[in-house]
Amino acid sequence: MLDLIIRGGMVVAPEGAAELDVGVQDGRIAVVAQPGTLDIEAGRTIEASGKHVLPGGIEPHTHIGIPVPRNWAGRAEVVTQPPEAASRAAAFGGVTTMVDFSGSLSIQPGEAPAAGPIMQQVEDRRDAFAGHSYIDYTFHHILSGAVSPATIGQIGEAIQSGVASFKIFTTFNASRVPYGSLWEIFQEVSRHGGIMAVHAEDDDIVTHMEEKLVREGRDQGYNLHLVHNNISEDLAFRQVLRLANHTETGIYFVHTTAKEGVAAIAEARLRQQPVYGEALHNYLEFTCDDYRKPGGTAIHTYPAIKFADDRDALQEGLADGSLCTTATDEYTTYKDVKLSGDTILTVCGGHNGIETRMAVTYAKLAASGRISLERFADITSTNAAKILGMYPQKGAIAVGSDADIVIFDPSLHKTITLDDLHADSDYSIWEGFECLGYPVMTILRGKVIVEDGQLTGSSAGGRWISRRVAPGVLARPIC
Ligand SMILES: [Zn+2]
User: Which of 296, 338, 302, 420 is nearest to 80 (CA)?
Assistant: First the structure.
């Protein structure tokens, strides 16, 4: 007796996409079989013919329930939407695991980095999510500022405890980690088998352009791409890659935004350096021209949305394998906060994207056949699981894996409207976007959590995921 059988769908399994039946028992995938050959009773049978049966979406980059800097929000004590709301929106969007952050969560100018032992900070974050998430969650740990030797000394223990990835910024006020500290961190993370998640911008270029545009009266928000620019990404990515090469450290570049960034990653991968790049789904659609529309900076997430050829390079990178994952930089606020700041120094980062990523990515790349269904599963789930140390527990429809599954209907074409979305927000940059396929059912560890537009899961249902990066991931590019 199985708990659940999903029959007749186009299943993306590790061996490729094929029509298969999937059996689930005790929250895990118990059997994957040729259609019609599963002669076992099941508590429930789901008919999925004509639909895609994919590994549940993994969102590798979210900022949930954290303080919004005063200079972005225009007032104090604004917080991004809490885990309950973000995970609810995620579940509707086909996402079953999200990777948020522990450690120094605030990028408020002048704010001190997080204090206390790394594992205490991780525990605090687990407490904030426990009982409040419809989907599973885990955290990159943020190290910021001039990280102390004592903190660096705790990295090994954290990795042993299931914290596989560490995030650093090379810019952003007090969050910026100077290169000396970075060198020490890279060595320690490499030694213990972790991976670095890097927000790479050249701080000198960014600061220089901020001062220059303010001086010249050109500090309007629609000039953000001149501050967080292509040269900055080129310099920063290459410097990080050199440091990673010297220290034999695996790198996961969050939000690659420019053709120069894609090229730096592709060249390093050709040299067999273990480097992986992420693209945000808003960068696959918009360009800096869109900043000039009324309310146009709503599309902005840091670094900055650039030109048409950068957008095309990101799409091509996801198609040709130079880039590995899609993410959102989920950071949901209400519209008044998002549009409060309108200068290069005050535009609020992030957007409410966790629900739209899979459908938008499908429409941009998969619906036309530009990428295969297998590749779609890779860049929305499997690769993030591999790179960040959750595979094959997550990111696979294979015997023994968690039964995290999204059933995606390629014939369900719909135009996104705010009414269809489930975040704690009152705007969407995706209003009017034409989806060419949409998630219709989300299953977390064998339990249906969204079905027919209804939330059937529980906010007590999500669990923290312990992670460990496979050595091969850190030896050479594996996806
Ligand atoms: Zn981010």
Answer: 338
Distance from residue 377's CA to the centre of ligand 1 (Å): 22
Strands 454-455 and 447-451: antiparallel
Task: CATH number of the domain at 63, please.
Answer: 3.20.20.140
Distance 62 CA to ligand 1 centre (A): 6
409 assigned to some structural domain: no
Q: What integer pLDDT is reported at residue 173 of this predicted model?
A: 83
Residue 206: the pLDDT is 98
472 within a domain of the structure (yes/no) = no
How much distance in Å is there from the Cα of 326 to the middle of ligand 1? Answer: 13
Pairing type for strands 28-33 and 16-25 reads: antiparallel
Give the neighbor-by-neighbor strand order of the sheet with 95-103: 57-59, 95-103, 136-142, 165-169, 195-199, 250-253, 275-280, 325-327
Expressed in angstroms and rounded, the spacing between residue 15 Cα and the centre of ligand 1 is 33
CA of 349 to the centre of ligand 1 (A): 8
Q: What's the sign of the alpha-carbon dihedral 25, 28, 32, 35?
A: positive
pLDDT recorded at residue 106: 80
CA of 331 to the centre of ligand 1 (A): 8
Q: So what's the pLDDT on residue 112?
A: 77
Number of folded domains in the chain?
1
Query: What pLDDT does residue 114 have?
Result: 80
Question: What's the angle, vertex CA 95, arms to CA 93 and CA 100, rounded to 5?
Answer: 120
Contact status, residue 478 vs residue 388, Cβ threshold 8 Å? no
What is the whole-number distance in angstroms between the Cα of residue 37 and the centre of ligand 1?
Answer: 45
In a domain, 415, yes or no: no
Q: What letter does residue 204 receive in the DSSP assignment?
A: H
Question: Ligand 1: distance of its center to the CA of 157 in Å?
Answer: 25
- Give pTM, 2 decimals: 0.98
Tell me which residue range forms the domain holding 272: 57-396
90-131 pLDDT, tens digit per residue, is: 999 999 999 999 998 887 777 777 889 999 999 999 999 999
What CA–CA distances, in Å, run from 269 to 170, 174, 257, 276, 322?
A: 22, 31, 18, 8, 8
Task: Using the mean position of ligand 1's atoms as its centre, give its distance from the Cα of residue 416 in Å.
Answer: 24
Which residue numbers in the chain have pLDDT < 70?
none
Determine, yes or no, domain membership for 355.
yes
In this prediction, residue 395 carries a pLDDT of: 98
For residue 61, how far is its CA from the centre of ligand 1 (angstroms)?
Answer: 6
Centre of ligand 1 to C-alpha 436, Å, is 27
Q: What is the DSSP letter of 178?
A: P
